[in-house]
Amino acid sequence: MNDTDLIYRIIEGDRTGFNLLIKKWEKRIYNFVFRYLGSRDAAMDVTQKTFLNTYRNISRLKDPGRFRSWIYQIASNLCRDELGRMKKRDMVSLDVIQESHETKGTRLPREFVEKDKDQPDEKLSSKQLTSIIKGALAELPEELRMIVIMKEYQGLKFREIADALDEPVSTIKSRMYKGLILLREIFENQKITREVLNDEV
Amino acid sequence: MMKCEKIRALMMDYIYDELQEKDGAAFEEHLKKCSECREEVESLNVTSDILQQWEEPEHDVRMIVVRDKVSLFDKLKELLNGGFFKPNKIAFGFTCAFLFLFLLLAAGNTEISVKNGDFSIHMALFDHAEQPVDDDPKSDRLVEELVKQNFQLVNTLIEQSEERQNEKLAFILTSFKKELEQQRYKDLKAIQYGIKDMQKNTYQQIQEIDTVLNELVRPVDLRY
Prior knowledge:
- The structure holds two protein chains of two kinds.
- In chain A, 73% of the residues lie in helices and 0% in strands.
- Chain A is an all-alpha fold.
- Chain A is elongated, with a radius of gyration of 19 Å.
- Chain B contains six helices and two strands; from the N terminus they run αααααββα.
- Chain B is elongated, with a radius of gyration of 60 Å.
- Classes of the chains: A mainly alpha, B mainly alpha.
- Chains A and B meet through helix 2, helix 3, helix 7, helix 8 and helix 10 of A and helix 1 and helix 3 of B.
């Protein structure tokens, strides 16, 4: 059963049909929120809220074919709210923010820089690479970061991102372009090139 | 041929496979000839590939799901089927209960004493100071007799109290009866007096009327 049929079923009153929808989407939404917020607990919380809001408002969804961008719209709004709250509480436990602080100046975790000096040929561990990617993403302005995460990790179409974020498709595309250029610059500065990638892969 | 400017506008669509078919051929044609645009596409592809190295988090995600209202019977059935009575769980429960009881008994009968500077802790499951229970049949009989006597005593007590209550009730009833009779007698007397008075009054009134009538009749007679 596809999402559209499932949504019609839920709107008609089949409450338990929502469980199937949750099962189908929980991991995807959680991953999106986790990549954006960087904290596991906050991601759990926001994902739960996303489904709660989805459940409450699903009968108002006029076009069930829009569900994909609609649920991301709910999740991204909640993400932004949560990030605002986290910043207000000055929760530095936020992985992404923490790493961006650490990498300020050198833009690289200290251990990695030292290793890089001594043994330039040493391969990058996937953990180090992940931490560099997280740090690079954290340096992007929020509106670019959200789009990059939606495109790169959630595989949404530009039109769907535009629908979720309520912006013109052209704006989304140009922001994505901007985001990629900024990331390319950061990676180049940290000497993460195709070669390093090939070594890693 | 497409201009570089147009190519840049379609760059994102190309990289993420969203380019419309009609633009695809022209785009690739341009890339073949323009090294600058080609390099741009390649480097952005690398950036995208690097980003893909951040693997999906392997977290256990389980959201709270919507549940239909379940009847009590169904819940019970679910409990019965759903492993609440699994043998190992029962065993675990019994073990826990036994251990708890054991500890409770031990703690309850722990003796800590300091005698002549010697500190000692004594733990036991059952209290040793308790008198041994007498299982003698004689005592059983004694207890039985005692119970019997007790029973009889209680019975007689109940009977006595019942008798006392009956007597009281009879006394109250007779006194009430007496009072009623006296009252009745008084009432009858009063009525008798009343009637006598009335008789007297009526007799007097009749006499008065007679005299008045006589006086009235006499003048009439004189006229005729």
